[in-house]
Amino acid sequence: MPRGGSRPVSGPPPDPNALRRNRLSDQAGWTMLPAEGRAGEPPAWPLVDVHPREWDLWRELWTRPQAVAWEQFGLELEVALFVRKLTDAERPGSSVELQKVMRQFLDGLGLSVQGMRRNRWRIAPQESEQDQAAEQSPRPPARRSARDRLKVVAHGDGS
């Protein structure tokens, strides 16, 4: 095992809200993923044979926001391998080593918070119906401040 030096995922993951924004590593920017996820049918299953549990996971994963990036980068095989190993990890008595591999898959595919940061992916804020209604209705007039409501009274005037 190597000692010292940098490793591919050493150090904290990038933070889009960091105060220092002048680092060279920040120039690459962040990819905004749609909050509503990926639309349409999932890609064809790329592995041999698909089990019912695998198919359910496959269909669900391809509706997530991360699936937009997976499709862009052609990660169908990686997602399928993740699904296959996830179904293995769900079985009672699965090995700790398999669970470690699953954690690496989660990070690599951006399915964990740390993985989203490392991939520099952010999910766009989803507008709620309340936000849309608030944008459409006029805002009430601003209340006068306490200072504006104070009346200047001349010295000795009791009114």
Automatic annotation (TrEMBL):
Residues 124-137 have a biased composition (Low complexity). InterPro entries: Terminase_7. It comes from the Bacteria. Residues 1-41, 120-159 are annotated as: Disordered. This is Terminase small subunit.
